Amino acid sequence: MTATPGLGLPRLASPDLLRSVFRRHAAGVAVITASGAAGPVGFTATSLSSVSAEPPMLSFGIGAAASSWPAVSRAEHVGVHILGEHQQELAATFARSGADRFGAPTAWREGPHGVPVLDDVLAWLVCRVVARVPAGDHRIVLAEVVLGDPAGAGRPLLYHQGRFTALRD
After folding, report:
1. Which terminus of the chain has a smaller tally of CB atoms within 10 A, N or C?
2. Does 162 reside within a domain?
3. What's the whole-model pTM score?
4. Rounded to whole angstroms, how far apart are CA atoms 113 and 34?
Protein backbone atom coordinates (compact mmCIF):
# COMPACT_ATOMS: atom_id res chain seq x y z
CA MET A 1 0.00 0.00 0.00
CA THR A 2 1.17 3.48 -0.74
CA ALA A 3 0.41 6.67 1.11
CA THR A 4 -2.09 9.07 -0.42
CA PRO A 5 -0.81 12.66 -0.63
CA GLY A 6 -2.07 14.61 2.39
CA LEU A 7 -3.25 11.44 4.13
CA GLY A 8 -1.61 8.72 6.19
CA LEU A 9 -0.83 5.16 5.20
CA PRO A 10 -3.99 3.10 4.62
CA ARG A 11 -4.70 0.40 7.22
CA LEU A 12 -6.34 -2.97 6.69
CA ALA A 13 -9.92 -3.36 7.85
CA SER A 14 -10.32 -4.02 11.57
CA PRO A 15 -12.71 -3.11 14.39
CA ASP A 16 -10.20 -0.44 15.49
CA LEU A 17 -10.08 1.10 12.01
CA LEU A 18 -13.88 1.28 11.85
CA ARG A 19 -14.09 2.85 15.33
CA SER A 20 -11.34 5.35 14.46
CA VAL A 21 -13.09 6.44 11.27
CA PHE A 22 -16.52 6.73 12.87
CA ARG A 23 -15.15 8.84 15.75
CA ARG A 24 -14.72 11.49 13.04
CA HIS A 25 -18.36 11.12 11.94
CA ALA A 26 -20.74 13.36 13.90
CA ALA A 27 -24.00 11.56 14.63
CA GLY A 28 -27.28 12.52 16.21
CA VAL A 29 -28.07 10.87 19.52
CA ALA A 30 -31.21 8.84 20.15
CA VAL A 31 -32.44 6.62 22.94
CA ILE A 32 -34.31 3.47 21.93
CA THR A 33 -36.75 2.00 24.48
CA ALA A 34 -38.88 -1.11 24.72
CA SER A 35 -40.99 -2.87 27.28
CA GLY A 36 -39.38 -6.06 28.55
CA ALA A 37 -40.56 -8.93 30.75
CA ALA A 38 -38.60 -7.50 33.70
CA GLY A 39 -39.55 -3.87 32.99
CA PRO A 40 -38.51 -1.14 30.57
CA VAL A 41 -35.20 -1.33 28.70
CA GLY A 42 -33.34 1.25 26.68
CA PHE A 43 -30.02 2.20 25.16
CA THR A 44 -28.29 5.13 23.51
CA ALA A 45 -27.98 4.81 19.74
CA THR A 46 -26.06 6.86 17.20
CA SER A 47 -26.97 4.49 14.35
CA LEU A 48 -30.51 5.80 13.79
CA SER A 49 -31.40 6.26 10.11
CA SER A 50 -34.44 7.17 8.12
CA VAL A 51 -35.14 4.33 5.67
CA SER A 52 -38.38 5.13 3.87
CA ALA A 53 -40.93 7.92 3.71
CA GLU A 54 -43.68 5.71 2.29
CA PRO A 55 -44.31 3.89 4.52
CA PRO A 56 -42.47 5.91 7.19
CA MET A 57 -39.70 3.57 8.33
CA LEU A 58 -36.40 3.81 10.20
CA SER A 59 -33.54 1.58 11.29
CA PHE A 60 -31.08 1.34 14.17
CA GLY A 61 -28.35 -1.04 15.23
CA ILE A 62 -28.04 -2.86 18.54
CA GLY A 63 -25.30 -5.16 19.76
CA ALA A 64 -26.35 -8.80 20.03
CA ALA A 65 -24.64 -8.88 23.45
CA ALA A 66 -26.37 -5.70 24.70
CA SER A 67 -28.46 -6.01 27.87
CA SER A 68 -31.43 -4.50 25.99
CA TRP A 69 -31.26 -6.95 23.06
CA PRO A 70 -33.35 -9.76 24.62
CA ALA A 71 -36.29 -7.36 25.13
CA VAL A 72 -35.81 -5.64 21.75
CA SER A 73 -35.55 -9.04 20.04
CA ARG A 74 -39.09 -9.84 21.25
CA ALA A 75 -40.70 -6.38 21.26
CA GLU A 76 -43.52 -5.65 18.83
CA HIS A 77 -43.02 -1.89 19.33
CA VAL A 78 -40.09 0.35 20.27
CA GLY A 79 -39.75 3.98 21.24
CA VAL A 80 -37.29 6.25 19.44
CA HIS A 81 -36.29 9.48 21.18
CA ILE A 82 -34.21 12.28 19.64
CA LEU A 83 -32.18 13.89 22.43
CA GLY A 84 -31.47 17.58 22.85
CA GLU A 85 -28.14 19.16 23.76
CA HIS A 86 -29.46 19.58 27.32
CA GLN A 87 -29.63 15.77 27.70
CA GLN A 88 -25.97 14.73 27.76
CA GLU A 89 -26.39 13.06 31.16
CA LEU A 90 -29.46 11.15 29.97
CA ALA A 91 -27.52 9.94 26.91
CA ALA A 92 -24.65 8.86 29.18
CA THR A 93 -27.03 7.03 31.54
CA PHE A 94 -28.57 5.02 28.70
CA ALA A 95 -25.08 4.29 27.31
CA ARG A 96 -23.67 3.10 30.65
CA SER A 97 -23.64 -0.63 31.28
CA GLY A 98 -25.39 -1.60 34.52
CA ALA A 99 -27.01 1.82 35.04
CA ASP A 100 -30.55 2.16 36.44
CA ARG A 101 -31.69 3.80 33.24
CA PHE A 102 -35.31 4.36 34.23
CA GLY A 103 -34.71 5.39 37.86
CA ALA A 104 -34.53 9.00 39.02
CA PRO A 105 -33.69 11.44 37.54
CA THR A 106 -34.96 9.87 34.27
CA ALA A 107 -38.49 11.17 33.63
CA TRP A 108 -40.67 8.87 31.55
CA ARG A 109 -44.15 7.42 31.19
CA GLU A 110 -45.76 4.40 29.62
CA GLY A 111 -46.78 5.44 26.13
CA PRO A 112 -48.79 3.91 23.31
CA HIS A 113 -48.43 0.14 22.90
CA GLY A 114 -46.80 0.01 26.35
CA VAL A 115 -43.60 1.63 25.05
CA PRO A 116 -41.61 3.70 27.57
CA VAL A 117 -41.64 7.33 26.38
CA LEU A 118 -39.01 9.71 27.74
CA ASP A 119 -39.98 13.24 28.79
CA ASP A 120 -38.46 16.49 27.51
CA VAL A 121 -36.91 15.10 24.30
CA LEU A 122 -36.77 16.98 21.00
CA ALA A 123 -38.97 14.38 19.31
CA TRP A 124 -40.22 10.84 19.88
CA LEU A 125 -41.77 8.07 17.84
CA VAL A 126 -43.44 4.78 18.59
CA CYS A 127 -42.61 2.24 15.90
CA ARG A 128 -43.74 -1.28 15.01
CA VAL A 129 -40.80 -3.62 14.51
CA VAL A 130 -40.97 -5.21 11.04
CA ALA A 131 -37.58 -6.96 10.81
CA ARG A 132 -34.41 -7.78 12.71
CA VAL A 133 -31.44 -8.42 10.43
CA PRO A 134 -28.21 -10.07 11.64
CA ALA A 135 -25.18 -7.87 10.86
CA GLY A 136 -21.94 -9.18 12.35
CA ASP A 137 -22.02 -8.74 16.14
CA HIS A 138 -25.07 -6.46 15.85
CA ARG A 139 -28.64 -6.63 14.66
CA ILE A 140 -30.24 -4.01 12.42
CA VAL A 141 -33.83 -3.34 13.46
CA LEU A 142 -36.25 -2.02 10.85
CA ALA A 143 -39.33 -0.36 12.29
CA GLU A 144 -42.38 1.36 10.82
CA VAL A 145 -43.48 4.59 12.47
CA VAL A 146 -46.90 4.35 14.14
CA LEU A 147 -47.11 7.77 15.80
CA GLY A 148 -44.96 10.42 17.41
CA ASP A 149 -44.40 14.00 18.45
CA PRO A 150 -41.79 16.29 16.81
CA ALA A 151 -42.60 19.36 18.93
CA GLY A 152 -39.86 19.36 21.60
CA ALA A 153 -37.83 22.53 22.04
CA GLY A 154 -34.09 22.88 21.68
CA ARG A 155 -31.15 21.84 19.57
CA PRO A 156 -29.95 18.28 18.90
CA LEU A 157 -27.33 16.43 20.90
CA LEU A 158 -24.44 15.07 18.81
CA TYR A 159 -21.83 12.38 19.34
CA HIS A 160 -18.36 13.10 17.94
CA GLN A 161 -14.79 12.04 18.82
CA GLY A 162 -16.08 9.72 21.56
CA ARG A 163 -18.11 12.33 23.45
CA PHE A 164 -21.47 14.03 23.49
CA THR A 165 -21.43 17.58 22.15
CA ALA A 166 -23.63 20.33 20.69
CA LEU A 167 -23.93 22.11 17.37
CA ARG A 168 -21.89 25.26 16.93
CA ASP A 169 -23.20 28.24 14.99
Report:
1. C
2. no
3. 0.92
4. 10
- As a residue count, the chain comes to 169
Q: What is the CATH number of the domain that holds 65?
A: 2.30.110.10
| Residue 22, SS3 per DSSP | helix
For all residues of the chain together, what is the average pLDDT? Answer: 94
User: Strand locations in the chain, DSSP E?
Assistant: 27-28, 30-36, 39-45, 49-53, 56-63, 77-82, 108-110, 116-118, 123-135, 138-149, 157-160, 163-166
Q: What is the DSSP string of 92-126?
A: HHHHSTT--TTSTT--EEE-GGG-EEESS-SEEEE
Which amino acid does the sequence have at 47? S
Domain span at residue 145?
Answer: 39-150
What is the torsional sign of CA 60, 61, 62, 64? positive
Q: Residue 58 and residue 141: Cα distance in Å, rounded?
A: 8
- Does 24 fall in a domain? no
Per-residue model confidence (pLDDT) at position 2: 65
pLDDT of residue 125: 98
Number of domains the chain is built from? 1
